[in-house]
From TrEMBL:
GO terms for molecular function: efflux transmembrane transporter activity. This is TolC family protein. It holds the Pfam family OEP. The lineage of its organism: Bacteria, Pseudomonadati, Pseudomonadota, Gammaproteobacteria, Enterobacterales. GO terms for cellular component: cell outer membrane. Keywords: Signal. It is found in: Cell outer membrane. It is a lipid-anchor. It comes from the Bacteria.
Length: 418
């Protein structure tokens, strides 16, 4: 019994270790994007709504279900035959079937409206997918770049921390003043604050990825996308606005409004109800049969159907205006994103290619001078802290550049390899 329990415990431990190993496996960008699409309830809801509208379009082409009609007619309520069902010749038990006939043109236009709505939902689904891919790529890049910043911060903090033992020995030997140890500790604490903030940014990116994918993604793998340059020139990006999913969704809304106006344009075509019945009467009286027609009379068309049609035409014109407005908004959005990207790119290049190399050279010089006794510890600590600040500033500019690049890259959803 004990061996069986021990075996179960060991099995559970091994399963937990294997699960942890699987969860800790780094994720590539394509894997993360694919998982985000699979996990998205909003995308699933959009697909289901489009399927529902397609089904409604198929149903709209059919005639309404026939109706079974049955009952008793002409039951006396006064006189000697009061509430008698077999005394009065006009009393009859009646059964029949009624079918409503809607013109094929009206049914077809109703179906076309549902189909236009389905295409509009699919277009909105593409807008959802583009936004999801953008947000996921931004979170993935954020995790990759914040991990780089954290690694650099830890390295500089560790390097500064190793200085404490040397500095205490110097104080003991009388070659340094006691306040130098305090200065070192204060600088180290300030640098650890930077490390803590970098760790916070990593955790925030991991949390965002969990929100988007439902997976615990603690590390990334694979090459980073080439975010150091725009996906295309600004003119090409502006010309591509017509393919933006939100613009396409607005275009589909205009198509839906046109389909509704086309449907209301023939609303005055009358529907016809046809009823066939058989009536059984009491003994001594002949049974009867008959057929009845009911036809709509749109005699007030100018006050009803025409008004509805005019309203739908106005909504169609409104949808076209809305499409124009959305195109203009997205052109402005592209221009804004490009401006933000170029500014972040300039800051990143200046920090990483100009300021950071100078800071590192200065640190190397002060380190050599300090070791030879030509420089004091505070200057060395200040130089090391400046390198860390510049490293983090460059990383922040790089993250901003990558964030704007992803927003531009995923203006239009991309197909992923399955």
């Amino acid at each position: 019994m004990k061996q069986h329990t021990l075996g179960l415990w060991l099995g559970g431990v091994m399963f937990g270790l294997l699960s942890s190993a699987v969860q800790a496996e780094p994720w590539t960008l394509d894997q993360t994007l694919t998982e985000a699409q699979r996990y998205s309830a909003e995308l699933s809801a959009s697909r289901n709504e489009a399927q529902a509208l397609d089904a409604m379009a198929d149903s709209a082409t059919q005639l309404p279900d026939p109706k079974l009609k049955f009952g008793i007619e002409n039951v006396p309520v006064q006189g000697n035959n009061d509430r008698r069902l077999t005394r009065e010749g006009m009393t009859m038990q009646k059964i029949g079937i009624m079918q409503s006939y809607v013109s094929s043109e009206k049914r077809e236009r109703k179906a076309q409206t549902f189909q236009a709505q389905a295409r509009g939902v699919l277009a909105k689904g593409e807008a959802i997918r583009a936004a999801l891919q953008r947000d996921t790529a931004q979170a993935w890049l954020e995790l990759a770049l914040t991990q780089q910043a954290l690694k650099k911060a830890k390295a500089l903090v560790s390097e500064t921390g190793r200085q404490r033992g040397v500095q205490k020995a110097s104080v003991g030997a009388g070659s340094s003043t006691p306040d130098s140890v305090l200065a070192l500790q204060m600088t180290l604490s300030a640098m650890r604050d930077k490390e803590t903030l970098a760790q916070r940014d990593v955790q925030l990116a991991q949390s965002r990825l969990f929100q988007l994918t439902g997976q615990t993604i603690t590390d990334v793998s694979g090459p980073l996308p080439r975010y150091q340059r725009l996906p295309a020139d600004e003119k090409t990006l502006e010309e591509g606005i017509v393919q933006h999913p939100e613009v396409e969704a607005a275009r589909r809304e205009a198509d839906t409004a046109k389909a509704r106006s086309a449907q209301s344009a023939i609303a005055a075509i009358p529907d016809v109800d046809v009823e066939v019945f058989y009536a059984h009467r009491a003994e001594g009286y002949d049974d009867m049969a008959g057929v009845m027609f009911s036809v709509d009379l749109p005699i007030f068309q100018s006050k009803r159907q025409d008004k509805d049609y005019a309203a739908d035409v106005s909504r169609s014109m409104q949808a076209v205006d809305q499409l124009t407005l959305i195109k203009r908004e997205h052109i402005a959005q592209v221009q804004s994103l490009v401006a933000q990207y170029q500014a972040a790119q300039t800051l990143w290049q200046r920090q990483s290619e100009e300021i950071l190399p100078l800071q590192r050279q200065r640190l190397d010089v002060l380190t050599a001078q300090y070791r030879s006794g030509q420089s004091e510890l505070p200057a060395l600590l200040e130089a090391r802290r400046s390198v860390l600040d510049t490293e983090l500033a460059a990383n922040q500019a790089e993250r901003e550049m990558a964030r704007n690049w992803a927003a531009i890259q995923w203006l239009i959803p991309q197909e992923l390899a399955k």
